């Protein structure tokens, strides 16, 4: 070997550059790597050279050999790349190309170096290789490093910091570091890489970069993002535009896709947009609510405070009004019209605008005309639903502004582009349509129609023709995963149809068992089979597996489910339970996630485990049910073997373990002996065990029998409240624990006279915010009208104990814990005398702050005719909180004061003090009451 190394070293030293090119390019033996390494062939990288005043970056000859052997010896090549440091940009290009060809595990080890290289000049010409690496990492479950690359690929900077004359014509200040020309394609590939793997993190990434772009644009103090100008319709693909336009289009399209695919709940998607500075995010929020929100959610948005005044929101506001106004109740319609009038331009602002633009004698007319025009524009979306005076007003305005366009051309929001539109697909017969899908291939060029686009429109046809597609399952089983994904999602909606073909649908679900995973294996092994479908299989495999699991749940809940179908379903579930999603990297990324149950819904094994519990419920229901409970372990040993396997050392995923917590009450009811034995494993002291416990708290009520089985877990949870575990009231698991502890106390399982009992330890350890959550939950429990006297007595004693305990604490702590008493005083079972006295003491402790102040005021008004002095005394305490005086100008206050004045004596004296306090706050609404008394 040493002789061979010596000969190689000597031979290489005799070759000039051209000869080295020839030598390395033709060398294809992987075994030569070690000899070359020992001979020093990889020790010195060709540096940049200055030739005639120009810096030239020549090829490093050994990269020609590495290109030939990288797939055969990827570990050695990766190790070599990790040790190379060069300023030669051509070498960097070749090394990145090598990284593109190695397995994802090795790519992950080089992410730090890849990110460093992205800071090099002229790196933008190899962005496509970076995108390929990012996609490879994501499709192989290495989400965290993939996102790290994505963040850097999408990085922005201020245009003035770039010396690119060709950008001089642009008005945008935020430009992509890798160049705006490639930016849309990079964002598109980023979306494709992550939308099925981690949709919420994807849209958060896009929103963060969009916010960064808008911050750069508005860094000189601009108050608006002018989205209504540069993006008049967000669904219009902004080809050739800047970074913010591209990000806005892709962000909204991604949000719409994940909501349409039901992979994320609407509230979770909207949380990504909430609390961001720029109006554009609000536009997207309203548009999503309009398309995906329930009627109640839309109504709440329309009637929310300040909605009519929000800037740059006309289009989305009009669309929401046009679709929902006619469904509102009369009171809400009146309120909407009132708010529209309040949102008209302020006269003083118009006067300032027009005073230099018109003659003094025309000023008043110009102001009135501008306000009328604005009112006409705001009423236009609901003009066909107006009645009475409102309809007459709009008709008059219509005559004045008759040249105005009576409608707006609005496009539909679109996601990936299909090669053929929906109407054309509808015109085809189902066999012809399937022929088209099987023959069509997506072009590889930028901005071209994609398989994802075709799948989206195809799903609509499947929804319209479920029976015809179910009759062609054999053909569907040969389709790429992306198409099958959308077919399954569409057919799921029809499981309850009387003529639904269960056998065919279950055969289609076996795609995950018979096709998808084989295809993934072929790709991972570097095979060329199904090469045209490779991207679809890798990118959509996990989404398909999750969709199949959800579809199985639909089938199991159907009354037409049969034992024969059950056996076939179980074989599919066994395949899904062995899926690699979620990977360990997924779990590491989710450490600290306060919603492990969401991870269950968005992973294959997690969704499959949820289906397993549904399978158990189906077996229980069809073999006697609650009336004659069966022995499930005797009926299905496979079921309990699967449950045990995923509690074993081979399954440590928090996402999977969370499903045990979610279904704990249910599985205990069906198999109490097995569940009791499994409690230590389900709720073990580990990340997975904590996920199960948090999910149990968040998604289950507490029952006497389950509390008895979980006493140790509850005691441990309240003992650790001051630590790093469940920490705040906004955590659903924390709210669950607070609610459970209060209910446990109300049922007599814990007592205040035991200093080490559950309730006393909870009060001692819980943060004020968590204590407030517990009291709020307790107040909700008091709303029933048939509460036993013993329970009511225990609850009042609990509040008295907490009120006394918090008397020694700071004002902020008192407010956080005690303001929840507002929910107590409006309960049906409340004792008025106790409630009024305790409300006054509570308001004194919180210095006027109370939860649900409008409802409390209504209650005070209702009881003030019977107990005027006590009611006005409580009202007096409420005036101390000066931040809430906007509620204190209400009709309820008038009622309380009027009853106190009529009662005279102490009540009258307190009423006068309330009026004085309100006067100090600038509220003079109630002086007339006292004038009438005098």
Outline of the structure:
This protein has 934 residues and is an all-alpha fold. The chain has 55 helices and four strands. A hairpin with a 2-residue loop joins strand 1 and strand 2 (54-56).
Task: Tell me what you see in this structure.
With 934 residues, the protein is an all-alpha fold. Among the domains are: 1-153, no CATH class; 421-579, no CATH class; 588-700; 719-846; 852-934, no CATH class. Helices cover 63% and strands 1% of the residues. The chain has 55 helices and 4 strands. The strands form 2 sheets. Strands 1-2 form a two-stranded antiparallel sheet. It has a two-stranded antiparallel ribbon with strand order 3-4. Strand 1 and strand 2 (54-56) form a beta hairpin. The longest helix has 23 residues, at 534-556. It is globular and about 115 Å long. Mean pLDDT is 83; it is low at 161-171, 402-415, 515-539 and 724-729.
